[in-house]
Amino acid sequence: MSILTMLSTMGEGMLRTCGIFFLTLLFSMPLGMVVMLLRRSRFKPVQWIMKIYIAIMRGTPLMLQLLAWYFGPYYLFHWSIRGYRFTAIIIGFSMNYAAYFAEIYRGGMDSISNGQYEAAQVLGYSRVKTFFKIILPQVVKTILPSVTNEIITLVKDTSLAFTLAYNEMFSLAKQIAASQTSFMPFVIAGVFYFVANYVVAFVMERIEKKFDYYK
Fold this sequence. Notes:
By secondary structure, the protein is mainly alpha-helical. The protein is built from 8 helices and no strands. The protein has one domain: MetI-like fold. The protein has helices at about 5-40, 45-60, 60-75, 85-110, 115-120, 125-155, 170-180, 185-210. The longest helix is centred in the N-terminal third of the chain and has 37 residues, at about 5-40.
């Protein structure tokens, strides 16, 4: 099998990998913000629930979480899981990464001194205006390196979808390598992940430069 044929065969898998990546970011980043706000809640029961959620998501393997999200509804409630595979993957990835983003956001919020809140209050800013005009731009600048690292990790973690027999790119690479007794599919997969991570790093670096005026 030629390299072009391998690329063509793996093309659909590459699109599926990209789908997992973008949908995970779409759901996990805003969900992480919600988790962070609840984690900082003054209502202790909510705060502790969020702490437990974050501890479970960060303390157990993502592979195990994917299996739990996929098979859990069947074993617990005897629901049909036919056609549920991709949904379980997105839920599993999003819930896992939301916990990591929540902690990154919390670190960024904690880095802002109380004096800035007090100064904004003296100037007559509302809490909402204070957050979006003063606090958020500084938080974004602070957390961008950590967010970049997490996104790069996500690119590589998409390969864990093979746990649920989902034919993303890495799964197809293994299948082709086994059938053709060739190492080339793994080389192609490696190049794809490298290029994807390079693009992520380049885009995030450009975004960081946009926030240079907040020095």
